[in-house]
Specification:
The protein has a 7-stranded mixed β-sheet, with helices on both faces. Strands 5-14-11 form a 3-stranded mixed β-sheet. Strands 8-9 form a two-stranded antiparallel sheet. The longest helix has 17 residues, at 162-178. β8 and β9 (187-188) form a beta hairpin. α1 (15-28) crosses α10 (272-284). It has a single domain (4-331), classed as Spore Coat Polysaccharide Biosynthesis Protein SpsA, Chain A (Alpha-Beta Complex), CATH 3.90.550.10. It is α/β, with parallel strands linked by helices. It has helices at 15-28, 59-62, 64-70, 76-82, 84-93, 113-118, 142-145, 162-178, 197-200, 272-284, 287-290, 324-331, and strands at residues 4-10, 33-38, 55-58, 98-102, 106-108, 124-128, 151-159, 181-182, 187-188, 204-206, 214-215, 224-227, 230-233, 242-244.
Length: 336
């Protein structure tokens, strides 16, 4: 089996979430090393040796120039996604051939057997936000999710082949330049660029298994079935692999995401047990203490409003291509 690793990225104030992810992932994948990439400085309030990670990577030490150059350009959520492609490249340099990225606000409920099977003969595995159309009422609808990308980059699994490395180098250039959350300009973190994944790469697996990346945006097509503590989606043939608690703030219950107008814990009793369990898990990982810790890098919300003028180009300049040869230069990381 290729040397494998799974990782997440966060600041100190999100370590309770990342700890839930790490412990739940390792429960079902003890053979895969799990790393947290911390985009922060060490805090005297945290005993890092007690955390359930196989390894901690300090991003400002691994990528000092990038963090220093971009710390005042992006907010912390943006910056955590901007460094993601570079971390894939750095981890590959350490000898990892198969790398999974997983968002910190995810809990794993069973083994990723379909992912590792797909990676035997695919370059990448993506999960779509939706596997069927939404209704015409409320928010988010399928038309809304088009702005944020067909695929959700809270999860992506890569075999670091030569072609994938070329794609990741291009992805890195794009997110360093345009890794904003600015929907009016068509930017959405690192995620939007993977819409090109199946076009630029030959062997991308779009995993339509409904047990992966279940989240507030696809509840119209998925319902939890509880079989004595084992969770399934819609029927007992589809195990819940992981739930993505994106935008969930426990202080706002029964709301599950501020933008979701369709579903809450009041009208979806099937998801209440896994949200209750997640809250208890966060408590056990020190959520109340960690959530208020200040972070060292990235602009604060008041400094990073949508009205702030964005630079038209990054330090890497404008990249244009009109021919197949120019595209080759782009993917290989060469400038014309």
């Amino acid at each position: 089996m290729p040397k494998s690793l799974a990782f997440t990225i966060c600041a100190n104030n999100y370590l309770a979430h990342a700890s839930v992810l790490a412990e739940s992932f390792k429960t079902f994948h003890p053979e895969v090393l799990f790393m947290v990439a911390l985009l922060d400085e060490p805090s005297s309030e945290i005993d890092y040796s007690s955390l359930p990670f196989d390894e901690i990577l300090w991003v400002h030490e691994e990528l000092p120039e990038v963090v220093q150059q971009l710390r005042d350009t992006y907010g912390i959520a943006e910056l955590c996604t901007v460094v993601k492609p570079l971390l894939f490249l750095e981890l590959h340099k350490r000898g990892y051939e198969t790398i999974l990225y997983i968002d910190p606000d995810i809990q794993v409920f069973s083994q990723f057997s379909e992912v590792f099977e797909a990676l035997k003969d695919h370059q990448a595995v993506l999960t779509p936000h939706l596997c069927s159309p939404t209704g015409e009422v409320g928010h988010p609808q399928d038309k809304d999710l088009m702005r944020t990308g067909v695929y959700n980059l809270g999860f992506v699994a890569l075999n670091m082949t030569a072609c994938v490395l070329d794609f990741v180098r291009w992805w890195d250039k794009r997110v360093q330049a345009y890794g904003y959350h600015d929907l009016k300009k068509g930017y959405f973190y690192d995620q939007i660029w993977w819409g090109y994944g199946p076009a630029f790469l030959d062997d991308v697996k779009v995993l339509r298994h409904l047990g992966y990346n279940m989240a507030n945006w696809n509840l119209h097509e998925r319902e939890i079935r509880d079989d004595r503590g084992r969770y399934y989606v819609n029927d007992k043939e589809t195990p819940l692999r992981f739930f993505h608690y994106s935008h969930y703030k426990r202080e706002s219950r029964p709301t599950i995401a501020s933008y979701n107008q369709n579903f809450t814990l009041e009208n979806r009793p099937d998801i209440v047990p896994i949200f209750d369990g997640y809250d208890r898990y966060l408590d056990a990982m020190g959520y109340e203490t960690l959530k208020s810790l200040p972070y060292a890098f990235g602009t604060r919300p008041s400094e990073n409003s949508a009205a702030k003028e964005r630079p038209p180009y990054s330090r890497i300049g404008s990249i244009k291509f009109h021919t197949k040869q120019a595209l080759r230069h782009l993917l290989l990381g060469e400038r014309k």
